[in-house]
Every structure is written in C-alpha cells, then in structure tokens.
Design a protein that fits this description.
globular; homodimer; 18% strand; seven-stranded parallel sheet
Chain lengths: 224, 224
C-alpha cells in the first residue's frame, strides 16, 4: 500500500505543478502544445514545418525534451523566438518530460513575447502519457513505418490525444500501413480525436495541420 | 537522499532476480536474448524471421512484452515451442520488462525443451536499458526511418548492446540515413558491438544475423 501511495503522490504533485504552469501560460496568453511520439516519428520535423508556416503571424517558443544531446535545439534555434532544452538523462524521470521540468523552462522563456509554445516531449509512447505538463492540447505523431498496430499496443497516449498526425506519408507506397484501420482503432479509444496526414519531408498536409492549430489557438483566446 | 536509496534498492533487487533468472536458464541450457527497440522498429518481424531460419535445428521459446494487447504473441504462437505474453499496463513498471516479470514467465515455459529464448521487450529506447532480465545477450534494433541520430539521443541502450540490427534496409532509397555515420556514433559508445543490416520484409541479411546468433549460442555452451 505504501508504494502505491508514493506513486500517487508523485502524480498528484505533478498534476498540481502542471495546473500552475497552465495558469502562468494563460496569464501570458501563451497557447501550449505537447508533442509526443515514438523515437524518430518526426517531432522535430513537424515542429520545424510548423514554425516555417506560422512564424510570420506568430511568435513561437520551443521547449525541447531529450534524454541526451542538444541536437534538436540546434536544429530549431535560429527559427524561433526562444528555445529551452531539457535533457532528462540525470533526472529522477528520464523517460518523459514532467511538469517541474517545464516549470523550470517557463522561467527561462520570454513568455510575454510568445503566442505559441511547442513542447517536444522525449521520444516514447508510454511514459509521457502519465505526466501532464500544463499544455492546452496533446498531439501524437505516428509515422507510417512504425506500423498501424500501435494504438492497440500503446492505447493510453492515443486515448488522451487531441490530434494524431500521421507522418511520412511519402513512404506509403513502400510500407504496409492501413490508414483507415489505424484511424478506426484510435476512434474506438477516442471518438473526438482529429487526424492529419502529412509528409514533413515534402510538406504535404502541413497547411491543414497548421490551420487547425491556429483555429485551436483562436478558440482558446476567445474562451479566455 | 531517501528517494535515491529507494530507486537504487529497486534496481539492486532487479539485478539480483536477473542473476537468479540467468542461473535457471543456465541450469536448463537455455540461451536467452533480450531484443529491444523503439515502437515499430521490427522486433516481432525479426523474431519471426529468426524463428523461420532456426527452428529446424533449435527449439525456440518466446517471451513477449507489451504494454497492452496480445497481438505479437498471436503472430508467433504457431511458429515456436512455447510463448508467454507479459502485458505491463497495470504493473508497477509499464515501460519495460523487469526481472520479476521474466521470472514469472520462466515458470510457465518448458525450459528443458528450449534451446533459444527470444525475449521481446516493450517498445522503448529508454526504460529497458535500466533493467537486466537475466539474458545472455542484448540486441537493439534500429530501423532506417527513425533516423541516424538515435545513438546520440538514447546513448545508454546502444552502449550496452552486444549487437545492433539495422532494419528496413528496403527503405534506404526513400529515407535520409547515413549508415556509416550511425555505426560510428555507436562504436564511439561501444567499440565491441556487432552490426547487422537486414530487411525483415525481404529477408535480406537475416542469414548473417542468424549465423551470429548460432555462433554466440555455441560459444556460450562451450563455456558452460
């Protein structure tokens, strides 16, 4: 019993810090997205495409989560208003961003100058689903070469997503991936989810994705 | 301090159960491989190809680890001597197999009838690197569409691997993946690692991989 209590209290503490992060974001009118996926599904590529499409109208900040290395921050540094890298390797949790890490990052970002905050989580389909960060929307990227059975194997992350971005559409002719069947398994877990089909390599589908993101940001501002 | 002590004692307990698992495997002359990768890199596909190539000469057992679903066990069930599925979703650790789970699985396997035990870990490049299971060799699969930067982002799992299998070689013309650069970054962490380049779809490279596996099994028997 003791052990379960400890784990619950860690998750409760995380939720309370996440709620505080969200209040801070709201006070500064920052709309935050938590981007999650398996390693190599295209989080940084989607982030770079999104920044390229939206930076003329919006000030964009980025939090980069990685177990090790600052490679992804280096890739986005020159494209955005501000970026903070979190490397989780020597932290108590290494397999996901948690709310205290985002709290530290928010303190280093010029929140008053940022409209949209893109948080790139650690590449993992399991741990990130357990930790709220204070984000307004959760997005999961699935890439075609991973296979269409992932929702059955990692159901929680798909059940909680506001949007699922199907990436690497350019590889469709070369892999076995049944898009309708993939979407149906997710709809069974999560009927309200939005789907986008993109190729971050060719840019296909990026406009639809960005249009949704802008609309969600506007809807959020209206409600505030 | 208290918290770090708790975590260490969990890892110590895990190591001690892993050592007990290995003694049980050795008593039964079972050679065990821990197969790890990101979601969708091809653990089950490599397992099926390996079984197809080796089952005429060896009795093969399988432990399937998944967060949820028994899909992978269903795919291998008819091909092997015995299979045990572990679903981790409601366990204390859900993001990796740990030694106690393998201990339970070993009790359900006919160890006396098995020569080679293939353990398919949960799809994750982070957590599985922390938990020894009792295996004799660790294998990491990296698939080309994931990108060649994974060793920099997930160094521990690559540093500890006996072999790295580069999968989805059939997609090489369609993705940006520099194989020599990928291999060099791993050699920097792990000079003794063996590399295999395969396509589980076409079967290319599977013979070399299986030849190594047989040789390792023979070497292990000689030493026993």
């Amino acid at each position: 019993m003791k052990r379960i209590e400890v784990v619950q209290s860690i998750l409760e503490a995380n939720d309370s810090i996440a709620a505080r992060n969200q209040r801070l974001l709201d006070e500064n009118e920052v709309f935050a997205i938590n981007i999650m996926s398996a390693p190599g599904a295209g989080k940084t590529s989607l982030l770079l495409q999104t920044v390229a499409h939206l930076r003329n109208g919006l000030h964009i900040g980025v939090i980069e989560g990685d177990v090790a290395s600052t490679l992804d921050s280096e890739r986005v540094r020159d494209e955005v208003t501000a970026v903070v890298q979190i490397t989780t390797q020597h932290m108590s949790e290494s397999c996901a961003l948690i709310a205290t890490m985002v709290d530290s990052a928010l303190k280093r970002l010029p929140l008053g100058d940022i409209d949209l905050l893109l948080i790139e989580n650690v590449g993992n389909l399991i741990c990130p689903s357990e930790f709220a960060l204070g984000e307004h929307r959760k997005v999961v990227i699935s890439s075609l070469p991973e296979g269409d059975d992932k929702p059955m194997k990692y159901p929680i992350i798909f059940a909680d997503a506001d949007a699922v971005v199907i990436n690497k559409l350019d590889l469709l002719p070369y892999v076995d991936f049944d898009i309708p069947s993939f979407q149906n398994s997710i709809r069974g877990l999560n009927p309200k989810v939005k789907f986008f089909q993109v190729s971050c390599k060719s840019g296909a589908g990026i406009e639809d994705w960005c249009a949704w993101l802008l609309q969600e940001l506007e809807d959020h501002r209206q409600k505030a």
